[in-house]
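hey so u asked for the seq, here:
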Amino acid sequence: MLQLKPQRSAAPDLQAPRASSLRKPKSSSNSTEVQRVYDAIFDAAMDRRLLPGAKLTEATLCSIFDCSRSTVRTALAQLAHDKIVLIEPNRGARVWQASAKEIRDVFAMRRALEGIAIDQLVRLDDLDVRLKPLDDMVSREQQAYEQGDRTSWLRLSNAFHVELARVLDNQVLIEMLSGLCARTTLIIALGDGTEGTACSYVEHQDILGHIRQRDAQGAKSAMDHHLQDCEQRMETPATGVVDPWSAFSVAR
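ran it, structure tokens below
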């Protein structure tokens, strides 16, 4: 029987947070079996170890996580609720794969919500202090990119947008934006076949620069350009079956 190998974590010095950690309040300590399975599948999809369309067979997942079928079914149901997994009658579960309309809708909502966040950010009295952790995050993102650490780069690139909302201490906005960022990651994974496409850290630096100057319009224009660049990177969707065994057992 195939033995599970330990996953290689993102470089610790880069402090690249797993995508699942961004969806929870910082005070959360939920460590149930269902949450463990949910987080592992979610992170595999966000790290692009599981691509859109990958079939998630209950029996295989039970073996991977050494858990009951009930645990797997509950985790998959929660992932389906969060639009990370699609469950179809008589066909089972697979990683969510966006339609053309869903792609347009997700990016439209990203622009709207990120614009709201920017408008609120530029009105903060202690803006410079609040932005310092984001400056550090973008520096780590650049370091990950230059070192060729793709997993850390993807994680930090995604975390940047969620942390913009976290600066405002608005948990509803954090939850909405993290959900949209997750769906955006799956959308881009459909056709992003080249590892060196957009150097997102440069665009993130530009966005932060405008926010720091309290230039809301400039920041929103930079954000729109950034998201448009992501949208334009879409190519022909990837095809083929991805085996969950490889996603969870092979070191990256």
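The chain is about 60% helix and 5% strand. The mean pLDDT is 85.
lmk if thats what u needed
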